[in-house]
Write a structure and sequence with these properties.
With about 300 residues, the protein is an alpha/beta fold. The chain has a domain of about 190 residues: Rossmann fold, CATH 3.40.50.720. It is about 45% helix and about 15% strand. The protein has a seven-stranded parallel sheet with strand order 3-2-1-4-5-6-10, sandwiched between helices. Strands 7-9 form a two-stranded parallel sheet. Strands 8-11 form a two-stranded parallel sheet. Strand 1, helix 1 and strand 2 form a beta-alpha-beta unit. Helix 3 packs parallel to helix 4, helix 5 crosses helix 7 and helix 7 packs parallel to helix 11. The longest helix has 22 residues. Bound molecules: NADP nicotinamide-adenine-dinucleotide phosphate. NADP nicotinamide-adenine-dinucleotide phosphate binds next to helix 1, helix 3 and strand 7. The site of NADP nicotinamide-adenine-dinucleotide phosphate has 25 residues, from helix 1, helix 3 and strand 7.
Length: about 300
């Protein structure tokens, strides 16, 4: 056994892949969950609770050598929803990890959005959480991962875009020359387990993407789609007023369904931002990680 990892966000898209990778790498996992889990999996122990519940967090980190904090609020109609989970919840978890006296490394799954805190409530909450964790980490090694847009099996956000692309239609949000980047979830999961085992863990902030230099633009995405489907792809511009209208509708519907909306006015700034290119240089240097899955390969093989 390589040690025990306390993991949050395991019931979500990315956390599930991280845990599968950790179990495959012979770690024991203690996983926080807000919902009753009936599946018994070897070396996986469920801890019921929420990031706001300090007793649950103490139980979660008890005996853990490492923490991977992957839980996060990615949807919301108001800023305090993001602050409550992403900032306060992260502080609570770090305090529990420090009090446990056992935890050597803490990996925070932040977001590339944290690079631009003024863009959205989400981006700001991730940025503030990073700052707070850096202040609190003390002598614990703190890795801050800033993945770009992540896709792969179980993802619901990018899947419709890629399905549309492979059917011959790509909606363009933002400027034609905007730079985009992507990361397959299996590469993120590998990076997380590799960081835990790295010889010299450093407190540092790392961007992660699929390694395409300078990122993609909409034209390049269209070309990849056309190559994979062996047919034309129409690039359809979504005007900003329409995007704003869709955000209003989505926010109104969320009140009726009582589900937090993904598309809000705040989110539009993120979606239309001009430069989401990222660099793996720092992480590759520190832990010798490099991504393996290209977008074209993933689209061709249906790995999304
Ligand atoms: N997906 C991306 O493209 C992307 C890119 C960069 C960074 N990230 C970051 O990666 C992390 C995971 O994202 P994801 O796409 O996997 O999101 P997701 O599918 O929505 O999963 C979020 C996870 O966080 C848990 N969670 C949320 N609030 C919680 C709370 N108050 N207490 C305990 N658990 C809580 C959820 O639990 P329930 O199942 O109970 O709701 C779920 O397990 C997030 O921190 C996100 O900011 C994602």
């Amino acid at each position: 056994m390589k040690g025990t990892v306390a993991v949050t966000g395991v019931t979500g898209f990315i956390g599930r892949h991280i845990v599968n990778e950790l179990l495959a790498q012979d770690f024991t996992v203690q996983a926080l969950t807000r919902r009753v889990q009936n599946d018994a999996v070897d070396n996986l122990w469920w801890v019921p609770g929420d990031l706001a519940d300090r007793d649950s967090l103490n139980e979660l980190v008890s005996g853990a050598d490492y923490v991977i904090h992957c839980a996060g609020q990615v949807r919301g109609h108001a800023e305090e929803i993001f602050t409550h989970c992403n900032v306060t919840g992260s502080i609570n978890l770090m305090q529990a990890a420090r009090q446990s006296g056992n935890c050597k490394r803490f990996l925070f799954i932040s977001s590339l959005a944290a690079r631009h805190p003024t863009l959205s409530w989400y981006a700001n909450s991730k940025h503030v959480a990073e700052q707070q964790l850096l202040t609190l980490a003390s002598d614990m090694a703190l890795g801050i991962f800033r993945p770009t847009a992540v896709y792969g099996p179980g993802d619901k956000e990018l899947k419709p875009l890629f399905n549309g692309l492979l059917r011959g239609m790509l909606p363009r949000l933002g400027a034609p020359e905007a730079k985009l980047s992507f990361l397959h979830v299996s590469d993120l999961a590998k990076a997380a387990s590799q960081w835990l085992l790295a010889d010299l863990p450093q407190t540092d902030t790392y961007e992660l993407c699929d390694g395409v230099s300078g990122g993609y633009n909409w034209q390049r995405l269209r070309d990849i789609g056309a190559t994979v489907r062996q047919g034309p792809v129409r690039l359809v511009r979504i005007p900003l007023p329409l995007l704003k209208l869709l955000a209003e509708i989505s926010t109104m519907c969320s009140r009726l369904t009582k589900q937090e909306p993904m598309l809000t006015r705040s989110k539009i700034n993120e979606l239309t931002h001009c430069d989401w290119s990222a660099s793996n240089q720092c992480l590759s240097q520190h832990i010798n990680w490099s991504p393996k899955v290209s977008l074209e390969h993933a689209l061709r093989e249906g790995l999304f």
